[in-house]
Amino acid sequence: MRKSILVTGGTKGIGRAIIERFAAEGFDVFTCSRNEADLLALKASLEAKYPDIHVFVSVADLSKKEEVFRFSNEVKERALPDVLVNNTGIFLPGALHDEPEGNFEFIMHTNLFSAYYLSRAFIREMIQRRSGHLFSMGSIAGLTAYPNGGSYAVSKWAMLGMTKCLREELKPHQIKVTSILAGATLTDSWAGVELPSERFIRAQDVAESVWAAYNLSPQTVVEELIIRPQLGDI
């Protein structure tokens, strides 16, 4: 039976690199984003390169609980993914004490609550099947506080804590849970920054790390994987 992967926010950056890596191995793909044009372009590209796989895309704003539920139900009507990558995220700079009103709620709903609700949507069936691998795309900001990180850093600290809890809860059920904690990665989030590309992590390297962690034997799991630029944090 063909395997499948669900990656939220899969049209760009790390999410797209992960999708490309697994699609190249014959995985069916489920993904979502808020931009329909980007989704359709991704679907067309994947189906052209990998004609034997199935690609399902859906326009969804996962900062909204009802959209998470709708998207998860759309996926469950088609398959129970073997791999779930909670990748949706947003970065809005600012300090906790004076960032714009509403930033905290919006970032937490986008970065954390979406992963909470989506994971819960599939875990029961994964437990029944006794297999599955959950990845949370965290950040170095979830390990080290830094100025102007504000609510984004808080959301990533909380994501790491939630992932640790899921790891403990799901280990008896043969479900693997992994936190990917990446430093500055060359994606659209860093557009306009006057630094050479060599100063950043490649999104493809993060994808290779996810693929490698997924392919370990059943008795082994990568719990946390820290990935930094060779020259250190930016």
Automatic annotation (TrEMBL):
Domain of life: Bacteria
Any single Pfam family the record assigns to this protein: adh_short
InterPro entries hit by this protein: NAD(P)-bd_dom_sf, Sc_DH/Rdtase_CS, SDR_fam
Transmembrane segments: none
UniProt-listed PROSITE patterns: ADH_SHORT
Listed GO MF terms: oxidoreductase activity
Alphabetical UniProt keywords: Oxidoreductase
Protein family (similarity comment): Belongs to the short-chain dehydrogenases/reductases (SDR) family.
Identification of the protein by name: Short-subunit dehydrogenase
